[in-house]
Amino acid sequence: MPTEGNRFRTAARHYLRGRAAYAPLLVRRVAGLCGLRPAHRVPDLGCGPGQLALAFAPFAAGVVGVNPEPEMLAVARQEAARAGIPVDFREGSSLDLGPGLGVFFLTVIGRAFHWMDRPETLRRLDRIVEPGGAVVLFGGDHPAVPDNRWCAAFEGLVDRYAEGDAARAERKAPGWLSHEAVLLGSPFAHLERHAVIQRRQTPVEHFVDRALSLSSVSEERLGPRAADLAGEVRAVVASFGSDGMVTGVFEWQALIARREPT
User: Fold this and answer.
1) Within a domain: residue 100?
2) 142 touches 151 (CB < 8 A)
3) Which residues contact 47 (CB under 8 A, 6 or more apart)?
4) Residue 6, in any domain of the structure
5) DSSP string of 132-154, one letter each residue
6) Domain with 226 in it: what CATH number?
7) How far is CA 243 from the centre of its chain?
8) Spatial separation of the C-alpha atoms in residues 51 and 69, rounded to whole Å
9) Beta bridge partners of 135
10) Residue 121 lies in a domain
11) What is the pLDDT of residues 117-157, one digit of tens each?
């Protein structure tokens, strides 16, 4: 999980508005495909404000959300209390994975795997994921459709303000191994991908939250320049919408990684 302290401290308060919740249909489909049962336990690694932890709680006996950022965990606990859903949120990282956490059936990771020592995380999970269990990476993308004309302009702004961020540059470098490549070299090398595509209306202001929820351009990193970024995002994204709303098409993806069948 985050390797540079406090990258997400200020991002936490923007996360829920800035990052659209995972499609419930995809969560249900993954639970069914993986054979998740009410007796099983689920860890959400790099849980952030708890979106996946809360989404999977109804399908499992217990969910443990793990994150190194206290501000993220504060938001997650608040959301769980508001929803009346019991989730055990713990401060920690993937390096804390071990027998002390118990045995799990399905491990979910959303938009956080790139912050971890990926091979070591998978080795540790191999010791605590039950036979027949799986690791699932959740993510999202924006298909190349007319409704997503705003994407290039938004991402261009983020790239400009993120210039000089070493962590971002490392992930975009030619030598960076994809998650698929890492998984194929791990005990969880049997892969399948599933996706749900939805059209949504999003308030322009939520795009500001989306930008500030990114660690590479968070208020913690940009300081006073964060206000400049927010102003540019409002102006640019608003030009693609009307009445303060912008249409976008989201593709929510789940990469299911199981051990090779015996």
Assistant:
1) yes
2) yes
3) 53, 65, 66, 67, 72, 73, 76, 89, 110, 112
4) no
5) EEEEEEEEEE--SSGGGTHHHHH
6) 3.40.50.150
7) 29
8) 15
9) 107, 257
10) yes
11) 999 999 999 999 999 999 999 999 999 999 999 999 999 99
